């Protein structure tokens, strides 16, 4: 198993934590939009509490380690690697519990170009431990509003991980899908599971709308989030998200492999 010290060094070297590529300007813009209840950054969450900009900066300073000074308005944002490590430990604990219960699990990502491999290895390990990795709503069309207007995507499952892609690419075996923040895919997947009368997930693992959309519906959720994704950390503060791990969610896909080894080792799922 990868040691904590080795992983800390990797987090900093790969800029998964420490100074990250996400800028302070991007993060502050997301906080302003979240405070205004903009659905683009709510990610399917319906916050119970009133959150203004300063509340969100304070929350993100506590959860991620970003600057708590609202006068700090430019430059790279910063994630405290100790908070990332603590989050990964808690994340692994939830996976361990799911494995012990042989619980049905749903994986989904809005960052398939970066995070598909990370989730797929976890899905393989849980499947080997006796969990059912769910793949509902294969090929079902979803209309998602994007900055380019309304676009139609289709749900696909690659190596046990749900994502959305152009309908023409579904089932074609191509690993990459579309980047998405929308909660509509997970809502569609859960509705399809209910309609089919099959098992519902006891745990959803992922990011963006996959986490917040399912958490808002009362499913236990764990996920990864960057400094410009306050919704997951608000969800954690309000009790709708079990674990939100702070890290840069858009670095090279191979940079997440040490995290996979660490999480599987901590969860007792190493093979």
What does this structure look like?
The chain has a single domain (4-266), classed as Glucose-6-phosphate isomerase like protein, domain 1 (Rossmann fold, 3-Layer(aba) Sandwich). The radius of gyration is 17 Å and the shape is globular. The longest helix is centred in the middle third of the chain and has 21 residues, at 81-101. The model has no long low-confidence stretch (mean pLDDT 95). The chain is α/β, with parallel strands linked by helices. The strands form 2 sheets. Strands 4-5-6-3-7-8-9 form a 7-stranded mixed sheet. The protein has a two-stranded antiparallel sheet with strand order 1-2. Helix content is 42%, strand content 18%. The chain has helices spanning 4-13, 24-35, 39-42, 53-63, 81-101, 112-128, 184-196, 208-216, 230-237, 257-266, and strands at residues 18-23, 76-79, 105-108, 141-146, 149-158, 161-165, 203-207, 220-225, 243-246.
Write the layout of secondary structure elements.
Elements (H helix, E strand, L loop, with lengths): L3 H10 L4 E6 H12 L3 H4 L10 H11 L12 E4 L1 H21 L3 E4 L3 H17 L12 E6 L2 E10 L2 E5 L18 H13 L6 E5 H9 L3 E6 L4 H8 L5 E4 L10 H10 L5
Parallel strand pairs: 3-6, 3-7, 7-8, 8-9
Antiparallel strand pairs: 1-2, 4-5, 5-6
Brief account:
It is built from ten helices and nine strands. It has 271 residues and is an alpha/beta fold.
Total tally of structural domains: 1
| Uncertain regions spanning at least 5 consecutive residues | none
**CATH domain fold name:** Rossmann fold
Q: Helix-strand pattern, N to C? A: HEHHHEHEHEEEHEHEHEH
Quickly count the helices.
Answer: 10
Provide the gyration radius in Å: 17 Å
What is the CATH first-level class name?
A: Alpha Beta
Q: How is the main sheet built?
A: 7 strands, mixed
Mean pLDDT: 95
């Amino acid at each position: 198993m990868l040691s904590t010290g080795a992983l800390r060094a990797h987090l900093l070297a790969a800029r998964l934590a420490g100074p990250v590529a996400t800028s302070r300007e991007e993060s502050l813009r997301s906080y302003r939009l979240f405070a205004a209840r903009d659905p683009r950054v709510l990610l399917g969450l319906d916050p119970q509490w009133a959150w203004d900009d300063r509340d969100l900066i304070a929350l993100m300073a506590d959860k991620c380690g970003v600057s708590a000074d609202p006068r700090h308005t430019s430059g790279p944002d910063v994630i405290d690697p100790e908070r990332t490590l603590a989050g990964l430990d808690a994340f692994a604990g939830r996976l361990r519990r799911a494995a012990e219960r042989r619980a049905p699990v749903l994986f989904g990502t809005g960052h398939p170009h970066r995070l598909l491999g990370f989730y797929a290895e976890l899905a393989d390990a849980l499947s080997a431990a006796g969990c059912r990795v769910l793949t509902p709503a294969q090929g079902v069309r979803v209309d998602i509003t994007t900055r380019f207007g309304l676009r139609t995507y289709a749900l696909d499952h690659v190596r046990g991980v749900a994502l959305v892609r152009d309908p023409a690419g579904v089932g074609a075996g191509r690993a990459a899908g579309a980047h998405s923040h929308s909660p509509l895919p997970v809502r569609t997947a859960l509705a399809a599971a209910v309609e089919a009368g099959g098992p519902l997930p006891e745990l959803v693992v992922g990011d963006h709308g996959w986490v917040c959309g399912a958490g808002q519906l009362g499913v236990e959720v764990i996920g990864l989030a960057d400094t410009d994704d306050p919704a997951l950390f608000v969800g954690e503060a309000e009790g709708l998200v079990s674990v939100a791990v702070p890290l840069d969610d858009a670095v090279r896909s191979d940079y997440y492999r040490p995290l996979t080894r660490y999480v599987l080792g901590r969860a007792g799922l190493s093979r």
